[in-house]
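hey can u run this one w/ oxa(dethia)-CoA bound, need the C-alpha cells asap thx
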Amino acid sequence: MKYAKIIGTGSSVPETVLSNSDLEKMVETSDEWITSRTGIKERRIADDSTAASDIAYEAAEKALRAAGLSAQQLDVIIVGTVTPDFVFPSTACIIQSRLGAKNAYAFDLMAGCSGFLYSLHVAEGIIKSGGVKKILVIGVDLLSKVTNFEDRSTCILFGDGAGAVILSASDKPGILSSILSSDGNNWGLLYVPAGGSRTPIGEEVLKNKEQYIKMQGNDVFKVAVKSMESATVEAIAKADVSAEDIDLFVPHQANYRIVEAVRRRLDFPQEKVFMNLDKYGNTSAASVPLALDEAIHKGRVREGNIVLFAAFGTGFTWGASVVKL
Ligand code: UT7
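ok here u go:
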C-alpha cells in the first residue's frame, strides 16, 4: 500500500452559542466591528464540566462510523491540541480509553492551530513506514478555557470544537503533498504565559491573568497571510497538480480577511473556498477538520475531489496539504 487516504470524517462542537451581541455585553466591542474585522458572528463555548477529550471523543465516534470501522481496528491515535484535559496524561490516551481502542498507541501533538495538519503529516509518515493501517487523527481545542473574556482583542476570535479523520493505508492516492514549517523566533507574539513549567499557576499568575492567551493580533495577521500563501503554493507544486485542479480550499478559519488575502494572492475563485468561521470562530487545531467534515456533509466535496488545506498558528507553525478524497 503506497498511499494514506482519508476514509471517514466527524466533528463535534459544544451546544452553547456565544454571539457577537453576547460579547457586546461583556466587553467594549460591537457586532459591526467583529463582523467587519473577522467575519465571525458567533462561536461555541464548552461548559465548565466539558474537556477536550469529551468533544474529541464525539468527533472520533462519528469518523469511525463514517469509515465503517470499530475502535479496535485503530493502530494509532494522534490528537493535535494545545488545550489538553491535563498537563499529562495525553488527551489521546484518554480518548483511547473511552473508545476502547485497545490495539492502538496514542499520543498528543502540539502545533497550535496547525496541530491537525502536523498530525495528518505524521500519520501519513507512520502509514508509509509500513505495518500500520488505520490512524485516528483529531484536531481539538477548547480555547475558551484559556481566553480572558475581559480582553476584547482576543475573546472575540476564539471558539471550541473538534474534528476527526480516519487515515487508512490505501492503493489509491490520498495525501498528495504536505508542506510544514515553523519559526520559533516570534513565539511571544501568541502564547499563554503561565500554566507550564516556566511559570506554574499561582496567586500572582491569577492576579495578573497570565493563564490566558496573549496575542499581538496585527503582527500575527501579517505573518499568517505570507506563510499560508507560500505553503499553499509549495504544496500545490509538490502535489504536481495545478491550482485549477483544486476542487475546494479548506483553510484554517482564523479570520476571513486572512483567508481572503491568501485567496486573492493565489487567484482562487471565491466559490472554491470553504468558510464556516461565521458560526464557530477560530477553533485552533479543530478548524480544518471541522470545516472539512461540514464541507463533505454539505456535498461541497466528495470522493475523488482534490482539497487544499492550509493552517497557521502559535509557534509560529504553518503548513498546507493537498489531499485527494
Ligand atoms: O490562528 C492564528 C491565531 N491568531 C489570529 O489569527 C489573529 C490574527 N489577527 C487578527 O485576526 C486581527 O489582527 C484582529 C482581528 C485580532 C484585530 O484586527 P486588526 O484590524 O488587526 O485590529 P488592531 O489590532 O490593529 O486594532 C485596531 C483597533 C484598536 O484601536 P486603536 O488602538 O486603533 O484605537 C483596538 O484597540 O481596534 C481596537 N479593537 C477593538 N475594537 C472593538 C481591538 N479589538 C476590538 C474589539 N472591538 N473586539
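The pocket of oxa(dethia)-CoA is lined by residues 29, 33-34, 37-38, 113, 152-153, 156-157, 190, 217-218, 220-221, 224, 254-255, 282, 312-313 (CB under 6 Å). anyway lmk if its weird
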